[in-house]
Amino acid sequence: LTMLRLCRFSFRKTRAWAFSPTRLLSSSGEPSGHEQSLYPGSKSRFSADIAQCRPLTSDGDGGVSLYRVMDRLGQLLNPEQDLNLSEETLLKMHKTMMLLNTADKILYDAQRQGRISFYMTSFGEEATHIGSASALNSNDLVYAQYREAGVLLWRGYTLDEMMNQCYGNHLDPAKGRQMPVHYGSKELNYHTISSPLATQMPQAPGAAYALKRAQAGACVICYFGDGAASEGDAHAAMNFAATLDCPVIFFCRNNGYAISTPTEDQYRGDGIVARGPGYGIDSVRVDGNDVLAVYDVVRAAREICVKMNKPVLIEAMTYRVGHHSTSDDSSAYRSIDEVSYWDREDHPISRFAHYLKQKIGRA
Amino acid sequence: ALPISVTDALDTILSTDSSAVVFGEDIKFGGVFRCTVGLAEKYGNERVFNTPLSEQGIVGFGIGLAAAGATAIAEMQFADYVFPAFDQLVNEAAKYRYRSGSMFDCGQLTVRMPCGAVGHGALYHSQSPEAYFAHTPGLKVVVPRSPIQTKGLLLASIRDPNPVLFMEPKILYRQAVEDVPVGDYEIPLSRAEVLKEGADLTLLAWGNQVHVLREVGQMAEKELGLSCELIDLRTIYPWDRETICESVSKTGRLLVSHEAPFTGGFAAEIAAFVQSECFLNLEAPVERVCGWDTPFPHIHEPFYVPNKYRCFDAIKKLASY
Questions:
Q1: Distance from CA of A233 to the nearest CA of B (A)
Q2: Residue A59 above 60 pLDDT?
Q3: Residue A38 burial (10 A CB sphere; 0-12, 13-18, 19+)
Q4: By the 8 A CB rule, do B210 and B149 touch?
Q5: Is the Cβ pair B103, A196 closer than 8 Å?
Q6: What value of ipTM does the predicted structure carry?
């Protein structure tokens, strides 16, 4: 029957829709010009005031605010807003951030000594890793870029595993096939890193769609940087996630630089968070150096994802204290004073240590 | 007709594999070539759905689906538009298993796309991009020549545990009519098919060009008294070296023909391999009759494609070498 219907449909019978002025005049007119549009693409109201027809750009208002729970010195802005995480969790958070920081120092030096070929540190961004990882379930899938090793450490990746991959030795489950820091772990639900930027971004909503269909009660988190957000894959990813109702958290680590390219050369709008509404995605900007704030937004995002099967965009503002990689010397494009400020005055680990001392008397 | 053999294969998969989903541009209403007619109604919008207009998004999304354990069947509306997805296919899909040491893979991904000359397609509705992907270890590339072949090869491609690109010659969508078996059957990948045995020459092609060479072989038999062996390669990558070399070792003369441009086309790979493996059995250099090294033209299409006269000339050259 379907075939017969198809046969009857031929090009010769297609109507050529032609403009017919008399028909238009004879239809009853609308009272005002401000009724609701019937256009399939937008059903907003019409307006004769052009100011009404222009979406806000980011100039003038200083941009979307950054959510934080504690200040640079670890003081809660709002004591009622304390997340009241267990001491065990708080200590694990601190310990993992310190572990990441220390491992980074050692492995960076290992590259300098010729022991490994390449390395990338996460100095200054530890809270983005640990704050987000601690707010997820272990069966939530992780699609990362390359500067999220703390997420793996939180989930239980061992230092041995890190080093096996970096050294490409026979113990590396990835069989020494990739450059250092291209970690992956099936057991920890962390998809193997690839070098091309943002390619993981459209994959994340795909995986989320599969989880949704399988009713797994899990979500996907997709990490990417301020630079990767410029790729076409980032745009495609967010559009797909929104239109296909995918339970995925897009987590942007906006650390101010894509190698040497500062954010002023990367985008002209209000960062990455401002793009979310363009896709119809719930978005939030957070102080990425505040591990508790990061935890808070990711926990809330996870709930939206899993309960409503909708994507969420989180832009975590932070600062890349280290060089882009061991192949980079960032003194070539930024001042040591600038780096020093973030390392000394607004470091996520020190901030949290202050908080811990006040909260539980020790760090 | 060929679109129905595609629909049939997809229907078979959707009915037996609950994880399977079919997606791409305009899939829901049935597809611009009618390959997905009725599927959204039968299996629901959650399983058969439209995506936004973005090839890189479609393939990336498909990789994610497959990596998470779902059977993902994506469509590129035309092979000419696969290129935005080139990075996802070459840098991601092809390398997903290798780079993770087999911890992860996207073997459940299949990407279908209409390809090839259609008479009026010009630059952007006629391309045959198989050579770009045949150069990518980790991918498989399959090209069927008929409705019966399409259903069997597509089922095999979807079930193959590797990402497969399935390129359907669009000229066959309306042209080819066959009685396709209603059951579930597979045609193996990486196995060429000898359609007609012969002693004097081997004629090798894939897709629609197989039919051109069939006619050329008949011309050669009638006018030159030559017995031609006709082979359909079917899977471009990894290709069936054994069947081809066996045939060429027997006949000593090989003609390979494809619509894609001559330089760097897949016939070049076949010719290089055959001359290396069968050198002492060759009676003449391998002949390649292909599209010219230009973009695919509109009004000049009859002069661009490797038509039967050009192929016949090549046979004469082979036979008289």
A1: 7
A2: no
A3: exposed
A4: no
A5: no
A6: 0.95
pLDDT band at residue A12 using 50, 70 and 90 as cut-offs: low
Q: Distance of CA A278 to CAs A15, A272, B237, Å?
A: 36, 11, 41
CB contact under 8 A, B61 and A202: yes
If DSSP codes are grouped into helix, strand and coil, which group holds residue A317? strand
Query: How far away is chain A from the Cα of B243, in angstroms, using its nearest Cα?
Result: 33
Taking the CA of residue A237 and the nearest CA in chain B, the distance in Å comes to 6
pLDDT of residue A363: 72
Maximum distance among all alpha carbons in chain A? 85
Across the interface, do B70 and A213 touch by the CB < 8 Å criterion? yes
The per-residue DSSP string of B220-284 comes to HHHHH---EEEEE--EEES--HHHHHHHHHHHS-EEEEEEEESTT-HHHHHHHHHHHHSGGG-SS
pLDDT band at A16 (very low <50, low <70, confident <90, very high): confident
B131 touches chain A (CB under 8 A): no
pLDDT beneath 70, residues of chain B: none
pLDDT for res A31: 55
Token match 């998969």: residue? B13
Burial (CB < 10 A; 0-12, 13-18, 19+), residue A106, is: exposed
Alpha carbons A83 and A294: distance in angstroms, whole number: 11
Query: How many Å apart are CA B286 and CA B278, to the nearest integer?
Result: 11
Cis ω before B306 (30° cut-off from 0)? no
Active-site residues of B: which are they? 55, 125
**Chain A residue numbers touching B4 (CB-CB < 8 A):** 3
In this predicted structure, the answer to whether residue A21 has a pLDDT above a threshold of 50 is yes
Query: In angstroms, rounded to a whole number, what is the distance separating the alpha carbons of residues A352 and A71?
Result: 10
Using CB atoms within 10 Å of the CB of residue B316, give its burial: 0 to 12 exposed, 13 to 18 middle, 19+ buried: middle
What is the DSSP pairing of strand B235-237 with strand B140-142?
antiparallel
Q: What is the pLDDT of residue B176?
A: 76
Long-range contacts (CB closer than 8 Å, 24 or more residues apart) made by B271-274: B273/B241, B273/B245, B274/B244, B274/B245, B274/B248
Bridge partners of residue A258, in order along the sequence = A261
Judge: A233–B61 Cβ closer than 8 Å, yes or no. Answer: no
Per-residue confidence (pLDDT) for residue A26, from 0 to 100: 44
Contact residues on chain B for A240, CB-CB shorter than 8 A: 51-52, 54, 57, 60-61
pTM beyond 0.80: yes
Any chain A CB within 8 A of the CB of B108? no
pLDDT, tens digit, for every residue of B267-282? 999 999 999 999 999 9
Q: Does B88 contact A202 at a Cβ distance shorter than 8 Å?
A: yes
